Amino acid sequence: MVILGTKTDAPKTRGPDDSRGYRVFRVVNTVVLIGVVVVTLYPFLNIVARSLSEEAYIIAGKVTIVPRGFDLTAYKLLMSDALFWTNYRNTVVYTVVATLISIVLTTCYAYVLSKPQLKGRTFLIGVALFTMFFSGGLIPNYVLVTSLGMKNTIWAVVVPNAISVFNLLVMKAFFESLPSELEEAAAVDGLNTYGTLLRIVLPLSKAIIATMVLFYAVSFWNSWFTAFLYIDRQDLLPVTVYLRNLIAGATDAQQSGAAAADVVQAAATLQAVTIVLTTLPILAVYPFVQRYFVRGVMLGAVKG
Amino acid sequence: MLHKTWRRVAIATAGLLALSLTTACSEDPGESTDLSENRVGAMASYGIGDQFKATEALSFSTLYNNHTFYPLKEDWLFWSELTKRTNVKIEPVAVPLSDYEQKRSLLIGAGDAPLIIPKTYHPQENAFVSSGAILPVSDYLDLMPNLKDKIAKWNLQPEIDNLRQSDGKFYLLPGVHEKPTQDYTVLVRTDIMEELKLAVPKTWDELYTVLKAMKAKYPNVYPYSDLFSKPNPTGALLNILGSAHGTQAGWDYQHATWDPTAKKFTYTGASEQYKQMVTYLHKLVAEGLLDPESFTQTDDQARQKLANGKSFVVTGNAQTLVNNHRPDLAKTLPNAKMAKIPLPIGPAGEINPFPRLENGIMISSKARESKNFVAMMQFIDWLWYSDAGLEFARWGVEGTTFTTDASGKRTLNPGVDFLGLNPKAPKHLQKDFGFQNGVFAYGGSPDLVRGFFSPEELEFQKVMDARKPRVVPPPAPLTDEEREQVSLWETPLKDFVTQNTLKFALGQRPLSEWDAYVAELKAKNSDQYIELVNKAYERFQKDNG
């Protein structure tokens, strides 16, 4: 919606653009974008509606975006499951800690890489880039994490993917775009490297840091694979694995017609409820960070 | 003098030859015979029907498939009672059910696998055999008297032999059933049959006449509109129809079918039986008896058609009948009645196609070095294969979760719910006690496997029990190289067969083109495939026969 707003505001300030062609473009643009909004919003609203509906209506395929046979039992059921809350808490803790670690490491790495006078800079960039294209593979990674004694601890989740190379490069480009005169002035005034970073560069980088926080937080919130690999205790798993298992469990029972067929009964609503509850927090964070979001990425992208 | 030496040499040679011959014929003893270092905690004499109890407290790590419906709880009666009875503690390595197989591969590959690896479906174990990470359990069957007893008593040797690898050993301890328990069959609206004065069809041909009569009375209806179009179209119907025709189709599609008269394997999709099956299917579609949408529609669509009287027959089992179709019909057509009919009989005769082995247990090779190895095998034998262990895993503890009457019939205690038998009960057999757990309860005698079946379902099983089990094909284990080669051929072949089964059934390809289809299969290496399997079969016969 914000994007739509800026588009329509623009012509008022720029007279010549207010031609017939541009007006046609605006109409088409608005229609297309509203179409996109509908297409992206529909599945989400459908899930919300399902989560509030009675099982029978879902099975019959009668639920679209309005809940049918309003029913909160699935919410009550899920909220009474202690494991769900344990895993939910884990997700929050993992996301916060992992984002913190990632931001610190990425900022430090990116700042160093943005300095042309650094010796071995190309090598350090190469090291980072190499991991973008090649990985050691699942089993060696597993053996590494296990032999470091990180299995079944929070560190197995928050450390292995701490630096995303893509984010690192975006951040590096942003730091490079900062005028070097600022740092020179800071040095003249007696700040050392760390002082420059903390007092001059970081305050100017709020936009990019907010963006990175968003990127990292969303990816850690949604991730399940690392936790699945390195954690064997269900009370340490994040809620994403819980959700995944719930959905798989339902389909499994359906296919095999297994003895646990009562799973299927609650499943359709329960899945929807779990999805709603796991997406809500990240949805709530998004609007607040989003205003930095466009600015941050753009700033990094256009150099000089 | 010279003469004497000659004679000595001859005798020595003959002796050597005889010796080498006898060793060649006996099971390769290898390193496996000496278990004296591995007996810590084991019972000195452990036999059929004995209660296993370790002589000292032991614990074994076990891969645990964590089910959503009954997530692992540490305070389950199952754990405490198991330790009380056997002096063994199981240390579960809990893996979410959604990705159990991936984690299992990872753990085995990384050398970090637990000692006991349950819930493995044959032939999943093949992937781990060549790495040596899992134990050839066939070498240690002597430690498992109950399993050996069940194999002998229930005539499971052919099934067990089918698990063997190219080295003649097997690497999976399967769940063993005394009787096959077929659950999928045809579900029919019995009120429509009564209305039309039709008898319950016994064969597929009789089912055809029933459908025909339904169509005559209700010309706007496709009487048979099936579910299960995924993952392969009408997998369930093809499965039961295939077995009735003596072939394997749908969910159960296998590339090689054993021909007992010719004593060799033939390619399934090119066989005469398969053609007969496809012809039958085509007849149903062509005469408007089977809904062509059966091959593509979602399960929900098929359910709705049935619920709204737009179809009368579907494929299904007791669960889909009781949990889905009957409640659906009760809402929309209160007078409708629906029931399972005994699996219709086809040209293959009265057979019960359900396999008698189910998923089983792999043992990590590391276990062999453990000083508690023997105790562990005895423990596995008790929990998974002894009568007491099987009952314990399914029903729990007598007096607490169930009671047994004079005739030996078990009843769930009123305070315990399972499958909605005591819906008001405060506790659940799986969720709160940890019994009927898919990780620990498999196989057994019918009274255990079918303990919770409804009278209606038991009646169905009684009819099915009178039928012969399907002939088990002899083992034809491939070597690693062959397996790699074969896997390159399998996917295109299977896709081609599925595609053409549909085309023939729907009439998009006339059945007169069958020979052309077989030729196209050959172009996709079906001949080489079968040749390889037959070669493997002969090699196995020669080496182990």
From TrEMBL, chain B:
Pfam (any one): SBP_bac_1
Keyword Signal: yes
Keywords from the named record: Cell membrane, Lipoprotein, Membrane, Palmitate, Signal
Gene3D superfamilies, A to Z: Periplasmic binding protein-like II
Membrane recorded as keyword: yes
Signal peptide from the UniProt entry: 1-26
Classification via CDD domains: PBP2_AlgQ_like_4
Protein name per its UniProtKB record: Sugar ABC transporter substrate-binding protein
UniProt source species: Micromonospora inaquosa
Upper lineage: Bacteria, Bacillati, Actinomycetota, Actinomycetes, Micromonosporales
